[in-house]
């Protein structure tokens, strides 16, 4: 007999509400991880929409570029051999629809998508390329942002010379040529220019009052890891439906301009876990702005002025590249590799032929019992803190010990040995006498009682404490997200049976992956607890058995008949 208590009532009410909402609302969309391209070229670094086919896109790893084909197939386009210069960014332009430009740490390559030929159009180890743009009315006039200023070519890469538009010799990590205007940025300032004029600043992030929280360690990391300077501006996006509307991705959030880039205002940060924005994408159909951040992908709705995180299906949320593909799906590069997110959630058709699946009563009771026995989020947090050794007690102990050190004396001991030879003259001759030998030693004992009041070591301890707090917050945030992602998957397996056995096995594999990720940050605590639970109650394994459609329909019919 099942013992009823407050916890059982709460879980029963929660699961009943989830069950009710699952049949009244559209099924939520989630990130999907399709077949990945070959990883022999290194980890994925960037992506870009295919210039010839809006339903396709290009994906780059450190040393290879891939084109997605039919289904989940991948076609390799190009591979470069310089292992020390991985591919950083991909560019395509409407004036050159057949061409793709790939930027590495040292060179710029131009690839023809029709004949699949590639050639180097720029190479300089002293002025590393960072950004690229092509004049929309002159396909032979190119602009290149380098680590040492803006460069320009009038003959499609034949010769390069410093550009008259921008004379500074600092790094140019962003370039955008839109209609008759040029936007470029150095480390902290965005500039506006006309093709035949000089650039003038329109936004200086060093003078903005927006403060970046110190708890985000990603704030100091530029998108290109090979760069040693601090980049504040990462990406610039122009709205297709309104050319006067622009969005700027920075380390201080997103800025918006409604007058073509002359005046900028920060968007609300409500809902963002990190103000660092790596890349932006916009869905004209849904009217939503999407941002890739170190804390995952977020969608911004202008009506509510709020960001909403898109985390479902992701175990690792750090996102470095994002794009909207044909207004159908969101594609991104995360620490898990290439992932995609449908922009329109699946809505089940309503009608008398729709059957609602309700798990049997014994299955619900078994599931609630398992949830009550599994480790709680708080237990996982404690194990993460213990395994990573990031508890506050260590810092308090260091502070106390630094003060107690004032009671301990500083002892020094010295010993000296001097030798000298006496020389005298007699009748014009030098006579060497016996050696004079001097020996001695000294000792000194001192106390610095001021350290008992304030030790100079405490400044160093405070710095270490700040770093430890940042690390602990990152670990606990990751553990919380993985924990509840696994919990949601369990609920889906019980309340939303898959349509095929293959899908069921993929869900079980996903749950095992999330469990392994929790083990990685808890020293195996989660799996050890689960092993003891399933040893005592082997019946829990029945929850994860695959049921055929006939069995599911029978369970549904029985549940409806019992209700009637």
What helical percentage do the residues reach?
A: 25-40%
- On the 0 to 100 scale, the average pLDDT is 81
Taking the alpha carbons of the first and last residues, their distance comes to 24 Å
According to DSSP, the number of beta strands is: 29
* Structure class: alpha+beta
Name the overall outline.
extended
Low-confidence stretches: 1-11, 17-27, 209-229, 346-355, 552-564
Describe it for me?
With 564 residues, the chain is of the alpha+beta class. 26% of the residues lie in helices and 32% in strands. Among the domains are: 221-344, Methylamine Dehydrogenase, Chain H, CATH 2.130.10.10; 359-395 and 458-563, no CATH class; 403-452, no CATH class. It has a four-stranded antiparallel beta sheet, with no helix packed on it. A hairpin with a 3-residue loop joins β25 (319-325) and β26. α3 (377-388) packs antiparallel against α5, α4 (392-404) packs antiparallel against α5 (457-495) and α5 (457-495) runs antiparallel to α6 (501-522).
């Amino acid at each position: 007999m099942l013992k009823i208590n407050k916890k059982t009532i709460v879980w029963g009410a929660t699961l009943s509400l989830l069950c009710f909402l699952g049949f009244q609302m559209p099924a939520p969309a989630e990130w999907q991880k399709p077949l990945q391209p070959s990883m022999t070229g290194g980890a994925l670094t960037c992506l870009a929409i295919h210039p010839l086919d809006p339903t396709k896109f290009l994906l780059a790893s450190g040393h290879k570029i891939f084109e997605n084909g039919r289904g989940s197939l991948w076609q390799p386009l190009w591979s470069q051999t310089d292992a020390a210069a991985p591919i950083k960014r991909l560019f395509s332009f409407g004036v050159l629809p057949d061409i793709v430009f790939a930027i590495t740490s040292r060179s710029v390559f131009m690839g023809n998508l029709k004949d699949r030929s590639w050639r180097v159009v720029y190479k300089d180890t002293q002025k590393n390329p960072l950004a690229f743009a092509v004049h929309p009315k002159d396909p032979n006039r190119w602009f290149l942002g380098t680590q040492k200023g803006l460069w320009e070519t009038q003959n499609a890469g034949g010769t390069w010379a410093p550009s008259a538009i921008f004379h500074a010799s600092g790094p140019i990590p962003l370039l955008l040529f839109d209609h008759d205007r040029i936007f470029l940025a150095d480390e902290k300032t965005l500039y506006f220019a006309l093709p035949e004029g000089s650039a003038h600043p329109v936004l200086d992030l060093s003078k903005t009052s927006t403060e970046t929280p110190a708890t985000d360690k990603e704030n100091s990391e530029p998108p290109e890891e090979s760069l040693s300077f601090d980049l504040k501006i990462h990406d610039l996006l122009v709205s297709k439906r309104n050319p006067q509307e622009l969005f700027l991705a920075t380390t201080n959030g997103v800025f918006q301009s409604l007058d073509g880039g002359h005046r900028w205002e920060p968007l609300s940060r409500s809902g963002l876990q990190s103000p660092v924005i790596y890349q932006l994408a916009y869905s004209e159909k849904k009217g939503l702005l999407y941002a890739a951040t170190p804390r995952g992908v977020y969608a911004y709705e202008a009506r509510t002025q709020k960001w909403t995180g898109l985390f479902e299906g992701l175990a690792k949320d750090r996102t470095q590249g994002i794009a909207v593909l044909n207004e159908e799906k969101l594609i991104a590069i995360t620490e898990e590799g290439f992932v995609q997110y449908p922009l329109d959630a699946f809505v089940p058709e309503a009608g008398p032929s729709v059957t609602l699946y309700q798990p049997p009563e014994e299955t619900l009771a078994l599931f609630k019992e398992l949830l009550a026995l599994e480790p709680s989020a708080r237990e996982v947090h404690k194990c993460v803190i213990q395994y990573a050794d990031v508890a506050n007690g260590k810092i308090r102990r260091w502070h106390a010990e630094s003060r107690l050190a004032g009671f301990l004396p500083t002892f020094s001991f010295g010993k000296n040995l001097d030798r000298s030879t006496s020389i005298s003259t007699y009748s014009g001759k030098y006579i060497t006498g016996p050696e004079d030998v001097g020996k001695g030693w000294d000792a000194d004992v001192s106390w610095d009682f001021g350290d008992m009041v304030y030790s100079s070591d405490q400044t160093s301890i405070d710095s270490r404490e700040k770093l430890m707090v940042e690390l602990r917050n990152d670990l606990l945030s990751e553990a919380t997200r993985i924990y509840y992602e696994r919990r949601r998957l369990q609920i889906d397996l019980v309340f939303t049976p898959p349509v095929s056995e293959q899908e069921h096995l993929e869900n079980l594999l996903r749950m095992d992956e999330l469990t392994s990720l929790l083990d990685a940050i808890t020293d195996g605590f989660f799996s050890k607890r689960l092993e003891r639970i399933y040893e005592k109650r082997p019946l829990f394994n029945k929850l994860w058995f695959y049921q055929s459609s006939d069995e599911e329909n029978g369970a549904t019919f029985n549940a409806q008949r019992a209700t009637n």
